Amino acid sequence: MFQAWRDLTFLHWRYPAADVQAVLPDGLTVDTYDGDAWVGLVPFVMAGVRAPYVPALPWLSRFPETNVRTYVIGPDGRPGIWFLSLDAARLAPVVVAHLTYSLPYVWSAMSVRVDGPEHRYRCRRHLQPGRRCDATVRVGQPIPEPAPLEEFLTARHRLYSVRSGRMVAADAEHGPWPLRQGELLDLDQNLLEAGGLATPTGGPLVHTSAGVLVRVSGWRAVRDGS
């Protein structure tokens, strides 16, 4: 699949590694930085979604998305992302993603509003009343050279999932993130708790990005060391 990820905000919290390991499937090991696991809440706009040789359809190919993710080492020894949930505002892509990518997509009422440097994200799950994510972020100065922790949190090019009881992986190919600093103005969310985690403590690390163009490969079975 080809797609663009636009107007992103990365919100990241530290978690005890054991707490995150407890929500992972067998075969994945939580990836840590300075001994801690990290969990991300990432709202953005998905745009230009299409299969190879197929044009993007305007209504179906552009919609808000919010994912809850953490960072793992697969049985092949490679670092990647494990999604606890992915909220999307279009039902058809949610159904297709469930069938083709076995990812935990959730159909939600969502919006992304960009007003100068302020980005406002809204999310309400249709079939899970009360599950929500409202965030307002102010975009800050560019980050010319990401720090090691910023690289750890954002330079991830591998996705893991489980299909028919087997661990699989896909590659997400894209260039470096054009990262900026960010300021969280308000946040009301319980999507992390819906993923089986405790309510985060303290404020998150905040980064923003105009986005990247992405090519996501098909799934491949993962074996130990391969």
What's the rounded overall pLDDT mean? Answer: 91
Strand content: over 45%
CATH class: Mainly Beta
CATH topology: Acetoacetate decarboxylase-like
What's the total number of strands?
A: 13
Largest sheet: 13 strands, mixed
Indicate the percent of residues in helices. 10-25%
Radius of gyration over C-alpha positions, nearest whole angstrom: 17 Å
Structural shape: globular
Count of DSSP-assigned helices: 5
**So, the CATH homologous superfamily?**
Acetoacetate decarboxylase-like
Counting helices, strands and paired strands, the structural category is mainly beta
What order do the helices and strands follow?
EHEEHEEHEEEHEEEHEE
List keywords for this structure.
single chain, 226 residues, mainly beta, Acetoacetate decarboxylase-like, 13-stranded mixed sheet, 54% strand
Provide an overview of this structure.
There is one protein chain. With 226 residues, the protein is mostly beta strands. The chain has one domain: Acetoacetate decarboxylase-like. Helices cover 14% and strands 54% of the residues. Strands 1, 2, 3, 4, 5, 6, 7, 8, 9, 10, 11, 12 and 13 form a 13-stranded mixed β-sheet that branches. A hairpin with a 5-residue loop joins β4 and β5 (79-88). The longest helix is centred in the middle third of the chain and has 11 residues, at 91-101. The two termini are 23 Å apart. The mean pLDDT is 91.
